[in-house]
Specification:
This protein is α+β, with helices and mostly antiparallel strands and about 650 residues long. It folds into 4 domains: about 5-145, no CATH class; about 155-325, Endonuclease, Chain A; about 325-485, Nucleoside Triphosphate Pyrophosphohydrolase (Alpha-Beta Complex), CATH 3.90.79.10; about 490-640, no CATH class. It has 21 helices and 21 strands. The protein has an 8-stranded mixed beta sheet, sandwiched between helices. Helix 8 runs parallel beside helix 9. It is elongated and about 95 Å long. The relative contact order is 0.07.
Length: about 650
């Protein structure tokens, strides 16, 4: 027997793995650490390497060793032991997701029909015997000189396998239909990659291909069971749109530029992924069956070689695909209109610290809904599933105007498209309609009303120019849960903003080394906002402080922090279902009293008219709003402030 492995250590590792469950070996939590299983892991790695099998990560390697060992045990006539091992480690199926270890143990004992003590004794004996068997089995496994190792197959429901492949790969190309489950898998894979490599790690290149939207009607999948092709297409269309948004939001949050999204205009010859590990390439192919649920679809992993054609086929699909990295116009405001001067890739704008100049045109939709005679504003909770920036903030729906919006439905080409457009022009209207349909599944038709324009100055990147619309949803309209859109009464929005102002005040007081002139300007902005929320004494206290009064500033910051009452929002997609709110998104925070409140009053939001009347009748408040509007449009001031106000 090879001296490298001791049966006792292998048996202990088997027991530890059985107790934790194979799919949970790497789990980390407050009371759990990954199962070490060093001896079993090394034995599995030797076995997989010797047979030149494709297995991403130690969990996959251990599974292969145990599966093959149990199968060999069966072939040698030890069916009873093999059956018990199969029940303890895998359950009903040797492939796909594995049930929790406690459930496997109960079923295995029930099948054995033994008393608890006798079953424990038999289990221990079988584990020790299997440990000895595995050492000999792995050592005697035939070494394959043929570089074409056998295919590895499994069930798509086992996301862990693909996630680990992604985490270990250097370059990745993914070709899918809708890619509706891709964003969370990419998110987890990148988390592991950064945990194992370095905090800013990313793939050398990541390319994701979607099927062109027009071709979704040709897909035949499980949705066809509705016997309604129109409904199946609508659902497929929604999944594809949302996947594009969620994958795009995730990729933009990574702050990497080594990614691209594409749209393929033909029926793809294959779907799956090409994963380049530097020393080898693996083709992960998906085999779908419309009659089965997604978890029962199969995958097969093949190693790609120089004399095979998978890499060439993936590259051909990329070559004939259209980039989905949207092109956005950049320009300057011209009164209430916008004039385009150049184009940039959407993935390369709004980079913190970029120092880029220019303005980006946006649309913002102030959405409301009438219910039981009351009108309430509807805002979106910005999460990792729907946004790349300003997470955990409340925002009305907003998006970039893109080059596609410039190519109008009237048939004009980009060359002929207007270089300037105003609020009532069809370009911003088209972008607003597109946004509503993509996020809410609701066709606004002629219900969108152009109302105002506004600007938002950033200190370190491009500025934003908003075309603002209103949209009242019909009573009873139900919005998709994953859009995370919720009604927020006006008093709640005021409370959220008040907390946001307090946090900004405390943050400013904690800033050190700020020039006196800059600190005083920022303090004026903070104080005016505090005044609008009736923190008059605190506003006066901050304006009387100096950037040099370190001790007094620290005391004031502590006092302000105690005044913050954290607000939460329900979430359809958050694991905890309650999200602590950071505040209102940028422009809506700055222009809440000057633009949003009058809009709310005009569309009948409950309480807005009374609040607006009270503000207008208060000379001090009116002056504060006017002064803030002036300061927020001072580019030099906004560029120099030590915090984003």
């Amino acid at each position: 027997m090879p001296e490298r492995f001791e049966p006792g250590r292998i048996a202990d590792d088997l027991a530890d793995c059985r107790q934790r469950g194979l799919d949970w070996l790497d789990r980390k939590s407050s009371n759990q650490v990954p199962v070490r299983a060093a001896a079993l892991q090394q034995l599995a790695e030797d076995y997989v390497t010797a047979r030149r099998l494709v297995a991403a990560g130690r969990v996959a390697q251990i599974k292969i060793l145990l599966r093959d060992g149990i199968e060999e045990l069966t072939q040698q006539g030890h069916e009873a032991d093999a059956s018990l091992l199969r029940d303890l480690f895998f359950g009903d199926s040797m492939h796909g997701a594995i049930k929790p270890p406690g459930e496997l143990l109960r079923k295995a004992r029930g099948k054995a029909g033994d008393t608890e003590s006798r079953f424990r004794e038999r289990r221990t004996h079988v584990m020790r015997s299997f440990a000895q068997f595995l050492i000999v089995f792995a050592a005697s496994a035939p070494r394959r000189s043929d570089s074409r190792g056998p295919a590895v197959t499994g069930y798509v429901g086992n996301d862990e396998h693909f996630i680990q492949l992604l985490a270990e790969a250097v370059n990745v190309t993914i070709i899918g239909i809708t890619n509706q489950r891709l964003a969370p898998m990419l998110n987890e894979a990148l988390r592991r990659k950064r945990e194992n490599e370095r905090p800013d790690a990313f793939w050398g290149s990541l390319r994701v291909v979607f099927l062109k939207m027009d071709l979704l009607q040709t897909v035949n999948d499980g949705l066809e069971e509705f016997d309604d092709r129109g409904e199946a297409l609508r659902q497929r269309h929604r999944e594809a749109l949302w996947a594009r948004r969620s994958v795009g939001a995730f990729l933009k949050r990574t702050l990497s530029t080594r990614w691209a999204m594409y749209e393929y205009p033909y029926a793809p010859a294959l779907t799956g992924a090409l994963l380049d590990f530097g020393y080898k390439k693996i083709v992960h192919l998906l085999m779908r069956s419309p009659q089965r649920p997604r978890s029962d679809h199969l995958y097969v992993d093949l190693e790609d070689h120089t004399d095979q054609y998978f890499s060439a086929l993936f590259e051909e699909i990329i070559h004939y695909s259209r980039s989905l990295n949207a092109i956005v116009p950049v320009g300057v405001p011209a009164g209430h209109a916008f004039r385009c001067t150049e184009l940039r890739r959407r993935s390369e704008v709004l980079k913190d610290g970029s120092g880029e100049s220019g303005w980006l045109p946006m649309v913002l939709i102030v959405m409301s809904r009438r219910r039981n005679g009351h009108v309430e504003p509807i805002l979106q909770l910005r999460t990792e599933d729907n946004s790349a920036r300003e997470l955990n903030c409340l925002s009305h729906l907003g998006t970039h105007i893109t080059r596609d919006d410039l190519e109008l439905t009237s048939g004009l080409t980009l060359r002929d498209a207007p270089k300037s457009f105003h609020l009532a022009h069809e370009i911003p209207m088209h972008a607003a309609q597109r946004l509503v349909q993509e996020v809410t599944d609701y066709d606004p038709e002629s219900a969108l009303r152009p109302m105002a324009t506004g600007g938002y100055l950033y200190p370190d990147k491009e500025h934003l120019f908003f075309f603002i619309f209103t949209l009242e949803l019909p009573e009873g309209t139900q919005l998709p849960r994953r859009a995370d859109m919720h009604p927020f009464p006006l008093p709640e929005l005021l409370a959220v903003r008040a907390n946001q102002v307090l946090r900004s005040a405390a943050q400013l007081c904690r800033k050190t080394g700020v020039p006196e002139r800059v600190w005083a300007a920022a303090a004026e902005v903070v104080a005016l906002n505090l005044y609008l929320h009736d923190y008059t004494d605190l506003a006066e206290q901050i304006t009387e402080l100096s950037a040099q009064q370190t001790d007094e500033l620290a005391k004031t910051a502590a006092v302000i922090t105690h005044l913050v009452t954290e607000r939460t929002s329900p979430s359809w997609v958050s694991v905890s279902r309650e999200v602590q709110l950071a505040g209102l998104a940028g422009w809506q925070y700055r222009e809440f009293f000057s633009v949003l409140l009058p809009l709310y009053a005009e569309i009948g939001i409950d309480g807005a008219a009374d609040l607006l009347s009270a503000v207008k009748s208060d000379d001090h408040r009116s002056a504060a709003i006017a002064r803030l509007a002036e300061l927020y449009q001072d580019e030099h001031l906004m560029t120099s402030t030590p915090i984003e106000l």
